[in-house]
Design goal:
30% helix, alpha+beta, homodimer
Chain lengths: 137, 137
């Protein structure tokens, strides 16, 4: 036995389809994680209870649906766990359309100071994309 | 200013309806959290890629839909985030029906050793129920 063989690896099957095995046109699910800055927690809560209508509209136009965010207290820190579904056909292009939107840039000036991204996220990520290990329709 | 006033509190609005303000019969969304035991990570992944059909059936009978679990690496630990939707009218009764099922008891003998519940969960919880701060249909 060596270190490499002992390392956990993805396991795919009927209740965790491999990314390539998902049916075409099927909605894609995203779980993401970021740290919540405790001194900005109330500001984050207030902003998200009444997200600006322009931002809501922009998210919908980018084919994002069924989008929820939860607060997770772990030890003396808090994290934000988000779940949403993507129904479009070009995720990168739709995300870029959000990032280029002037209203979204204004929104992010409010929300970014509330967050600390995970140090182990991928270089191009703000929220860290999480690996799915189970799904049941 | 005192300590109590400074403590963050829930904020409700159009994009975070208060629990009592949700439309009757509407599906309820649950986000939950538990720690994954690293030495049992592969076993957990393998079990969840091919969840026993009897367990899948029992979950569906309990009015649980659109159920996903993600792995979240935070520092030198890993956590499991789950998201599911409940479409029934008596969550406690449906959860009890799962807990009383002999097949589920057998399943939990496999999965419980893979998990460490959060110390700050409520006394009656295994997975910790997370507070929602945002939702968009």
């Amino acid at each position: 036995m060596n270190q490499i063989n002992d390392k956990p690896h993805p396991s795919y099957g009927p209740t965790n389809p491999a990314p390539g095995n998902q049916a075409a046109g099927q909605r894609q699910r995203y779980g993401s994680l970021i740290e919540l800055n405790l001194e900005k927690e109330q500001a984050y809560r207030d902003l998200h209870a009444a997200v600006w209508p322009t931002i809501v509209e922009r998210i919908k136009q980018a084919n994002i649906e069924n989008y929820s965010i939860y607060v997770a207290p772990i030890g003396d820190r808090k994290y934000l766990f988000s779940y949403f579904e993507y129904t479009g056909s070009n995720f990168a292009a739709d995300m870029a359309s959000i990032a280029e939107d002037p209203e979204t840039k204004r929104w992010w000036r409010e929300t970014i100071p509330c967050q600390t991204p995970l140090p182990n996220r991928k270089p191009d990520e703000w929220w860290m994309d999480l690996e799915s290990v189970f799904h049941l329709d």
